[in-house]
Specification:
The chain is mostly beta strands. The protein contains no helices and 5 strands. Strand 4 and strand 5 form a beta hairpin.
Length: 89
């Protein structure tokens, strides 16, 4: 009768757009929503600062971030896993 505990923390998937700061990555999360008045599907995006302790995520990677306690003034997300590695050209 072991029951998995469902986490109340939100998780988002986005693309790393900056990895210049130490232990921090900036993640762009895009979502598609229907416009209230016109009904057209519109892409909206938000940027989140996520904590990356080992510095393993780099620009172009698609990662999953999870909500956490405030780590700094702007950082309250933690990078949890790599979804897709950036394609090298």
């Amino acid at each position: 009768m072991t029951e998995e505990k469902k986490s109340l923390k939100r998780t988002l998937i986005g693309k790393v757009v900056s990895d210049k700061r130490s232990k921090t990555v900036t993640v762009l999360v895009e979502r598609r929503v229907k416009h209230e008045l016109y009904g057209k599907i519109v892409a909206k995006s938000s940027k989140y600062h996520a904590h990356d302790e080992q510095g393993v995520y780099h620009m172009g990677d698609i990662i999953e971030i999870t909500e956490s306690r405030p780590i700094s003034k702007t950082k309250n997300w933690v990078a949890t896993r790599l979804v897709e590695k950036a394609a090298t050209v």
